[in-house]
Design a protein that fits this description.
The chain is of the alpha/beta class. The protein has helices at residues 25-38, 40-43, 61-70, 83-91, 105-108, 111-124, 206-209, and strands at 16-19, 47-51, 74-79, 95-97, 126-130, 139-142, 145-149, 158-161, 165-171, 174-177, 187-192, 196-199, 202-205, 218-223, 226-230. The strands form three sheets. The chain has a six-stranded mixed beta sheet, with no helix packed on it. It has a five-stranded mixed beta sheet with strand order 6-8-10-12-13. It has a four-stranded parallel beta sheet with strand order 1-2-3-4. The protein starts with 15 loop residues before the first strand and ends with a strand. Cell division inhibitor that blocks the formation of polar Z ring septums. Rapidly oscillates between the poles of the cell to destabilize FtsZ filaments that have formed before they mature into polar Z rings. Prevents FtsZ polymerization. Interacts with MinD and FtsZ. Keywords: Cell cycle, Cell division, Septation.
């Protein structure tokens, strides 16, 4: 009889990837401190991978790891590394991850079926309705559902949904739609003042959102793997 008390399975988790031209410990610390100042709660103990594809020599991975520890981030490993850089990273106790490959022809032939399944899933997705303001420090998660907030999402609050997010008030905190990886999901809000908006792992912080739609109603979605803002119809 097999023992099912221990299982090791593959899975997918969202990881932030750090792109930094200067991979000295001092430069990495400066860049990270700037990002943390914009959304400290979102990045607190967040798992991060460093892209070293453009590195010409091995960074001091141990010093960089100390920076991450000091800033209370979790340095998982590196990606885009040459054989030499992989050895240096692994010697410092870091994982060497592969960069995402372009889709193979075999996968491309399955795309229509996958999209059709996504459409069907969208039509049966449930909706979680919250009729109150979401205060700083609160987190609301609609697993396998759309999320409707009939109130304001305050600064420091976080709303997450595997489906779309509709906010009938001001969005000042963080909104994360398509949390299960569906890049067709969107965030709709009546007044955009967000700390962060993320869809299927792609995100913008407040400094990237402050433009034409700041302080106005907006719809945020993904187009060609990039966040785009549009009028709320």
């Amino acid at each position: 009889m097999s023992d099912h008390s221990f299982e090791l399975k593959g899975s997918l988790f969202p990881l932030s990837v750090l792109y930094c031209q200067d991979l000295s410990a001092a430069a990495v610390k400066t860049q990270l401190q700037q990002k943390l100042a914009q959304a400290p709660a979102f990045f607190y103990r967040a798992p991060v991978v460093i892209n070293v594809e453009s590195a010409t020599q091995a960074p001091d991975f141990e010093a960089i790891a100390e920076v991450f520890k000091e800033l209370e981030l979790v340095l998982v490993g590196v990606c885009g590394a040459s054989a030499e850089l992989k050895k240096a990273a692994q010697a410092a106790g870091l994982a060497a991850l592969q960069l995402s490959k372009s889709k193979t022809p075999a996968k491309e032939t399955k795309e229509p079926e996958t999209k059709a399944e996504a459409v069907v899933a969208a039509t049966v997705m449930e909706t979680k309705v919250v009729e109150q303001n979401i205060r700083s420090g609160q987190q609301i998660y609609a697993k396998g559902a759309d999320l409707v907030i009939r109130g304001t999402v305050g600064a420091g609050a976080e709303v997450i949904a595997d489906g779309n997010i509709h906010i009938y008030g001001t969005l000042r905190g963080k909104a994360i739609a398509g949390a299960a990886g569906d890049n067709q999901k969107r965030v709709f809000c009546h007044k955009l003042e967000a700390e962060l908006i993320s869809i299927a792992g792609s995100y913008w912080l407040s400094d990237s959102l402050q433009g034409e739609y700041w302080g106005k109603s907006a719809c945020i979605g993904l187009q060609d793997d990039k966040l785009v803002l549009a009028d709320l119809l």
